[in-house]
From TrEMBL, chains A, B:
Keywords tagged on the record: DNA-binding, Repressor, Transcription, Transcription regulation, Zinc
Name the record gives this protein: Transcriptional repressor
InterPro entries recorded: FUR, Fur_C, WH-like_DNA-bd_sf, WH_DNA-bd_sf
Superkingdom, natural source: Bacteria
Family affiliation: Belongs to the Fur family.
UniProt xrefs under Pfam families: FUR
The species this protein was found in: Halobacillus kuroshimensis
Amino acid sequence: MEHRIEKIKKQLHSQSYKLTPQREATVRVLLENEEDHLSAEDVYLLVKEKAPEIGLATVYRTLELLSELKVVDKINFGDGVSRYDLRKEGAEHFHHHLVCIECGSVEEIEEDLLLDVEKIVESQWGFEVKDHRLTFHGICRVCQKQAVAASSAEENKK
Amino acid sequence: MEHRIEKIKKQLHSQSYKLTPQREATVRVLLENEEDHLSAEDVYLLVKEKAPEIGLATVYRTLELLSELKVVDKINFGDGVSRYDLRKEGAEHFHHHLVCIECGSVEEIEEDLLLDVEKIVESQWGFEVKDHRLTFHGICRVCQKQAVAASSAEENKK
DNA sequence: CTCCCTGCAAAGACTTTGCATGACG
DNA sequence: CGTCATGCAAAGTCTTTGCAGGGAG
């Protein structure tokens, strides 16, 4: 984990930004919650546990900065909030998401499934693809099982 | 166009909603600007030209309603506003978008390029796909040409 | 008469900004 | 010292809600 912080520090320095304690705390929170898709408010609350004096505005400013540096991706699942997602080590493509419409869980797909599609877009639409956002909405494994369980319970009642 | 309004009217009635004059005016604006990706405010201003007494809240409520009925899709390109996009006749998949990071133009892809990808997601992740959102960010044909023109102008200067 | 719909204004949620203060070289 | 970063509070967006009045059946 430390080396990832070092790396981010270098990225900041290369653009003459500093890794201040607040920024570092924010980055640590993001690293520790890599699986989640935290909103600015979520990050703020978590950072506050370690550095209670931090302000919400600083968190916003830091997330904005990290977003510019492509350290995090800002995403939006359609509820009114922006969420921030750390790019994985070495990944230059933006990972995909599976959002369950039943329970709201969000799963990530690291693998890039769009290589073929991008080729088609480039050749047929003449569009030079730089990045993509792909989200599937549907029913996750867990909720599918529950649906089956519920309907068989229904069966038993008869 | 009239038959599309009729169709929407029936959809509304089937859920015991009415197609009021305000709602109809809103739908007409959406139909007349199918190519664009209007924000609620945009729709409001356009509707106002025909029906000046309409309120912004009604537009929001109508768009929300149409969204529930799957007549329009609510999308979000990362600027802070929701945009509303009419579903095409008979389409049950949500079309894809090409957003140009130079000029901000948005192009649509009707064709469903994700059929194969969805199969993979279903079989390998056990996720039952119901809908998807796919947006590519990159450089559109027009801006690519301008970039070429600009760099050759640069050449000429030498 | 009842229920749904509307306009207006107010409230709300999320995010950005202005400004004085503070850290750092 | 000068610059960049911070915290706080205020201001901004965009969107939703409360409520009284209206309209259709």
